[in-house]
Structure formats: structure tokens, C-alpha cells
Amino acid sequence: MFAGDHDIDRAVAELARLLPDTLKPLARVAYDYRWSWSADGPALFKDVDAERWARTGRNPRRLLTEVHPSALQSAADDSPFVARVHRLSQELAQDRARPSFSGVVTQERPVAFCCSEFGVHGSLPIYSGGLGVLAGDILKEASDLALPMVGVGLMYRTGYFHQRIDVTGYQHEYWLDADPERLPCVKVTGADGRPVAVHIPINDEGVVAHVWRVDVGRVPLYLLDTDLPENSPVGRWVTSRVYESNRAIRLAQYAVLGVGGVRALHALGITPAVYHLNEGHPVLGVFELLSQIRAQSQPGITDEDAWRQVREQVVFTTHTPVPAGNETYQRHEVLQMLGRIADLVGDRERFLSLGRIDPQWLDQPMGMSALALRSSRHANAVSRRHGEVARAMWQPLFPDKAVKDVPITHVTNGVHIPTWLHGPMRTLLDQHLGEGWLRRADQAATWAPVADIPASQLWAARCAARRALVELVARRGAGDRLRRGDPLDYAEAVGSGFDPDRLTIGFARRIATYKRLHLVALLPDRALALLSGDHPVQFVFAGKAHPDDTAAKEVVRQVFSLKRAPGVAGRAAFLEDYDIPLAGHLVAGCDVWVNVPRPPNEASGTSGMKSCLGGGLQLSVLDGWWSEAFDGSNGWAINGDVDTDHDAQDQRDARDMFNLLEHEVVPMFHDRDADGIPQRWVAMMRRSLMTNGPRFSATRMVVEYASRVYPRA
């Protein structure tokens, strides 16, 4: 079907030779991340050897090559286990054999989904946060819908940083090598058996990149890798780390992702129907498209005709109004690193002007987002409100248009339900929503039977998920505290203090100042009172600040300043090294998910959508997705108006947050009937599932892209 099929087949055969005959089908399963969202996939690999599964980072290839032969033989002799292996193998094979989605894209002309990071699974460490997790969800949903798509990204050799917090609350970072040779991926080779290589002009060097393939169900993800002996030390470093701090290296990454990505697809024999740029990072690829169009066209083609053909192939999704997500670069920075790519245009001034707000202002910096807006036939934001914000933000790029007419629409984000719905709630919904309900997850009628699920069953599922989270917090929280050197009594308190029956509140996401984690510590007396009142609550925090974001790191220290107050040790925990596996536990187990970004900076905010799937309730600022999700009966809301007086806004929003927690959330949680069930709480859970489940599913999102964005007008 796609380039690299024979490389996958060869790798599967090599792995199968290490397995007993009855387990050989696991080799194919291990090379297809479709196992990760199968109902039995994660449990199946865990049951081979639970300890080794954890130590290998839930990497199936490593598990099957590192587990002791006796464990493999024991599994091979277990008839029920072997039956599970064959069921999973058959499920994946049948999934690959389904006919493709009917639409404008085909197997011969797929969507090329280009992104700087992909959060497919915790064992593939090429993501940092929400953008990458969303990209992973889109690939998975495209696979589920049988929508022809290929992913294009970078194979980061050390990925994103790992986090450690010291006793003062200060964040420290370290990186670990992620050896692709031990991941479930293959290096793509050509007909001559040699790795497919592409050349990208960066600085004064022609950097060479090889291409790895990772299978995400039916969707191949192609990852470019410059860590090769033929490159210079700088060239090798380009694909080392996600969001590298060095600005020149970031520009080089954009060149490899954009120009290299387009060249790689050409070398692999893949001709996309459309290039979907997920944020501005891959946009330099438009210059390679321009070069190809000029080479293939009749002599005398005008620049405008060539650019029109480029724009016809490109759609663009912008994900944030925050300046850090819309970087700009000075003239000398761009030309030093990308001058030879500028020469693909034929005019370096023309190249620079395409990324400026005002093309005539020669000293204005160049930005990837502005370039992407100019170079695409369609642009969209990721929520209704974000669309409004983006149109106002980018109106200067379209000076002849009123804000309402700026050509930026919106496709609100969604989440891949089979990935993020698991545990007791998955079991319960599978029982009540009917056979194949996940294929109909974008339809309100699919979720209607939630109204008839007995309150006792919904509440039992919620309590079981909370109990599982408390067990994880006790285990992981104690380890985090011991590693950072906290006293033994403080380290042990998280195990003895967290209660599986206590209202559990979560605040976990990338830590940036606009996310306002500091609101929790802004009114310390009220925060401490919540932890020690007649009905105490417990808080779980997690998140990473970018290594260069000193202000965000200070926010974590502000929260840690309360750690030695009475009652905090056993009722509040910050879990280190936030990643996809930890996120899955948190969104499933927390009763309330708090999100208090400074409006209007939250473009979407998908963690709350994931929390809804597990029966969690939202307490959020009316920004991003929540401004179109909240209906007054499916969660709680804080005013989302913009206020230029940030200090006053923070004080007001902190008071509103604590007022809701004290006067509505806590009383509702403890308002129980004779059977111990909080009926009003469960009614809100029902409402949240029924309203948010279909509207914020990745099924709805990807169908919108396939029907509204990918077809040409």
C-alpha cells in the first residue's frame, strides 16, 4: 500500500523468529500501534510479563525481545492467552482490509498530515504536549475511518525532556536517548535495499535525512532523521530534541520537516491530494512544492500561477494565539540558516516578504504562521472562539478585509475516544451503547442510552476509576518525593493521606503562565481550607514548563510553597514527568478537571474533553472548547471575558474558582441519597457524557476535515 511495506514485513519476520509458534502473530501486532487502542491490546502485552512491560516503557517490540524465554513459553502454553493473541491479530488484519473512506482523497492520493510532533503512544517519545497528542489522535481516527492519510514528522533521537522537581519546587530537565532500533518502526529502503535518503539545504551544509516508518493502524507515519555519520555534528543534532531551544536549530528543523518532508514523499512515490500543515512548523515545504511545480510546468509559467498551484495543495490549522506558538525570526537569522531554501523562490526578498505581516516592511521579522496563511487555500482555528480570536489577530495580514471576513474558519478539536476512554467507564459504555458504537461516536443518538444507565452503575464506574488513580498517586507520588529528597514523613503521607472516596480535583497540562496554575496558590487560606474542611478534597497536579520558560517554572514553585502547610502532604500531590500514560490515568480518575487559562489564549484545550469521557466534570474558564460546550448543566464555568488588568482578573477568577468549589462542587459531591449515591452529581455526569461525547470526538473532527476542508471549493 505504501512505501516501506517490505521493510515492515522483514522486521515482522525477524521478530517472529524469536517467538514460540503460537505467539508469532504478536510480531505483526507489535509493529502496528493499532494494538494500543484495541480493548484488549495493552492488557495482552502486560500479561506476558507485567514487570518487564513497565520497564520497557510499554514498548511491545522491546518486551518481546527482552522478556525471559520462560515467560514467552509460559504464555505460549496458556490456551486462553493464545486465543486472545489470535483474536487481536485477526482484529488488526480485518481493520487493515476494510475499504477506504469515500471522498476526495484516495490510497493513490492520500492526505499528507505534517506536524512537528506526534503523540501516538508513550513508547514513541516524539511529542511534547497537546499539539502532538492531537496529531496522534488525528492519525488514529483517520485509521478508524479508513481515510487515506500519511503522517510526516521528525524522528527525535532524544525527544522531549524528562522532568524532576527539587525540594523547593524548581524544575530540572534531562534527556534520554530514544534508539529507533528498539522502537516498533523500520527504516524505509528503496529498490536497491539502501535507505531512502533526501537532501535538505541548511546553512552551508547539505543535510541528509533517512526516513523511518511507524504504523498507526492503517496510517503510515514517516519520520525524517538526520542523525547520520555523513552529516556534520550540527546536521546530526537537528532532529535531536523536540522544540530545541537554539533558534537556528529550530529553523533547521522546520527546513527538514517542510522541505525534507515534501522531498521524502516524492522519493517514496507518494503524491498527496492535499498537504495538511498542523501549525506553521512544516510550512517551508511550500517552497519545495513551488520548485517542483516550476520544474514540471511549461516554460513561461508566471509566479502567480505557480503560487496558485501551491496554495491549491495546502491547508493550514493554527493552534494558538500565544506569541510563543507563532514565532518570528529576524532577517539575518532566516537567511543564515535558510538562504539556500530562499533561493528556491528565486528572490530572497520575495521569500522574506511572504512571512511578514507587511510585505513591504523590509525590517519586519518573518513568521511561519504568516507564511502558512499566505500559502494555503484554507485556514482554520481549533474552536469557535479561537476562530474569532484568530480572525482579529491576523486581520493585518488581510488589510482589505473586515475582521469578520478574514479567511480563517474553525474546526473544533476532538479526542480519539478508544485511546482516552478505558477502564470501568469503557466497560460500562460498551455494555449500554450497542455494538460498534465507537464508529458512531460523533452522533448524539449514539450517546442517548446514557440517560438510561442506572445511577448506581455510573457512580460505581466513577468510584472505581478514582480508586485506581489514588493507588497510582500513592505509589508514584511517594517515589517522586523520595527522589527529590523530601523527609520520610512527607514522602509517606501521600500514601496514607490520599483517600479513594474523597473528591479528587485535577490540574494537569503543559505549564505556561497563561494556563494560570498559580490561581490555586493565589488565595492560600482558601486552598488550605478546602484540603482540611468538614469535607476535604484532594488535588493532583502535573505538567512541564518549557526549559526556557523561567516564569512558568516560578509558577510551580509558588504552588510548592504550600507543601509544608498542615494537611497538604496527604491531600495534594504534584506528579513529575507528565506524559501520555500519566495523562490517561489522570483524565480517567479525577472527579473534577480544573482549567483556568487567561482568556482568550486557550485555543482549544483537549484534556478536558478526555476527562469528560471518564465521567469527569469540568470547572473551566469560558474559553477554547468550553465556551461552546458549557450549557449550564454539564459542568461549571468561570467568566471568559478579556481583561487587560491581569492582576485584577487573576484575583477575581481565583475567587470565582474557590466559590464554585466551596459552594457548588463540594456540596453536590457529598449530597447523597439513602444508597450513598450523589444523584445530582450523577445527573451532571450523564449530561456531560451526552453533550460532550459526540461533539468533541475525533470522529466528528476528522469527518469535518474530510468533508469541509480537504475537498477543493
Structural summary, described in words:
The chain has 713 residues and is of the alpha/beta class. It has three domains: 93 residues, no CATH class; 309 residues, Rossmann fold, CATH 3.40.50.2000; 262 residues, Rossmann fold (3-Layer(aba) Sandwich). The chain is built from 30 helices and 20 strands. The strands form four sheets. Strands 1, 2, 5, 6, 7, 8, 9, 10, 13 and 14 form a ten-stranded mixed β-sheet that branches. The longest helix has 30 residues. The protein is globular, with a radius of gyration of 25 Å. The two termini are 29 Å apart.
Tag the structure with descriptive keywords:
single chain, 713 residues, alpha/beta, Rossmann fold, 3 domains, six-stranded parallel beta sheet, 30 helices
Instruction: Return residue spans where pLDDT drops below 50 for at least 5 consecutive residues.
Output: none
* Count of separate DSSP helical elements: 30
Overall morphology: globular
Mean pLDDT across all residues, rounded? 94
Query: Strand portion, in percent?
Result: 5-15%
CATH architecture of the largest domain, by name, is: 3-Layer(aba) Sandwich
Using the coordinates above, name the CATH class of the largest domain. Answer: Alpha Beta
Number of separate structural domains: 3
- Secondary-structure content class: alpha/beta
What is the β-strand count? Answer: 20
User: For the record, what is the CATH homologous superfamily label of the largest domain?
Assistant: Glycogen Phosphorylase B
CATH topology of the largest domain: Rossmann fold
